[in-house]
Amino acid sequence: VLKGNSLPNLYLVGFMGTGKSSMGKRLAARFNLRFIDSDEEIEKSSGMSIKDIFAKFGEEKFREMERDFIENGHPKTGCVVSCGGGLVCRDGMPELVKSKGVSIVLFAEPEVIFKRVSLSKTRPLLNVENPMQRICELLDKRSKYYNRSGICVSSSGNPNDVEERLARIY
Ligand code: S3P
């Protein structure tokens, strides 16, 4: 019987506010896996906040840090990894993530995303005049990457139902 720490990693991918962290924590508890958040790991290893990394070094540098994290910055098994919303949105990244374990994409309507993220001040990309418009633009640009990052699961509705959907796929 596989113990939690020998199970393949589960990667939760998708836009900001689609529930990667909350679902990741539930699934980690359920399957006895370790929960890891790519943003938190990058903040720990760099000693800087995501906001400061964007402000001081720019988005491209942050994307390199995300790639390093996926390539060799985390354990190879036994983890649920909540991936920052833009992590797979570079050529080669969906394939890289899928090569590391089971990858599932969470999606939600722009309105749902807007409600979930509008309280947060920690997401530099949405710190603009019109966040709803920005969400739609980004979703549009990113859909081709999300679409090839794994099985897509809706995160709208009852969180218990979403958890069941994800658990069945994993
Ligand atoms: C980003 C999403 C954020 C974080 C950074 C950039 C993005 O992660 O990595 O602010 O480009 O979509 P969450 O999806 O966990 O909010």
TrEMBL record:
<keyword id="KW-0808">Transferase</keyword>
<keyword id="KW-0057">Aromatic amino acid biosynthesis</keyword>
<keyword id="KW-0460">Magnesium</keyword>
<dbReference type="InterPro" id="IPR000623">
    <property type="entry name" value="Shikimate_kinase/TSH1"/>
</dbReference>
<dbReference type="InterPro" id="IPR023000">
    <property type="entry name" value="Shikimate_kinase_CS"/>
</dbReference>
<feature type="binding site">
    <location>
        <position position="21"/>
    </location>
    <ligand>
        <name>Mg(2+)</name>
    </ligand>
</feature>
<comment type="pathway">
    <text>Metabolic intermediate biosynthesis; chorismate biosynthesis; chorismate from D-erythrose 4-phosphate and phosphoenolpyruvate: step 5/7.</text>
</comment>
<dbReference type="InterPro" id="IPR031322">
    <property type="entry name" value="Shikimate/glucono_kinase"/>
</dbReference>
<protein>
    <recommendedName>
        <fullName>Shikimate kinase</fullName>
        <ecNumber>2.7.1.71</ecNumber>
    </recommendedName>
</protein>
<feature type="binding site">
    <location>
        <position position="85"/>
    </location>
    <ligand>
        <name>substrate</name>
    </ligand>
</feature>
<dbReference type="InterPro" id="IPR027417">
    <property type="entry name" value="P-loop_NTPase"/>
</dbReference>
<feature type="binding site">
    <location>
        <begin position="17"/>
        <end position="22"/>
    </location>
    <ligand>
        <name>ATP</name>
    </ligand>
</feature>
<keyword id="KW-0028">Amino-acid biosynthesis</keyword>
<feature type="binding site">
    <location>
        <position position="123"/>
    </location>
    <ligand>
        <name>ATP</name>
    </ligand>
</feature>
<dbReference type="GO" id="GO:0016301">
    <property type="term" value="F:kinase activity"/>
</dbReference>
<comment type="function">
    <text>Catalyzes the specific phosphorylation of the 3-hydroxyl group of shikimic acid using ATP as a cosubstrate.</text>
</comment>
<feature type="binding site">
    <location>
        <position position="142"/>
    </location>
    <ligand>
        <name>substrate</name>
    </ligand>
</feature>
<comment type="subunit">
    <text>Monomer.</text>
</comment>
<keyword id="KW-0067">ATP-binding</keyword>
<keyword id="KW-0418">Kinase</keyword>
<comment type="similarity">
    <text>Belongs to the shikimate kinase family.</text>
</comment>
<keyword id="KW-0963">Cytoplasm</keyword>
<feature type="binding site">
    <location>
        <position position="63"/>
    </location>
    <ligand>
        <name>substrate</name>
    </ligand>
</feature>
<feature type="binding site">
    <location>
        <position position="39"/>
    </location>
    <ligand>
        <name>substrate</name>
    </ligand>
</feature>
<dbReference type="Pfam" id="PF01202">
    <property type="entry name" value="SKI"/>
</dbReference>
<keyword id="KW-0479">Metal-binding</keyword>
<keyword id="KW-0547">Nucleotide-binding</keyword>
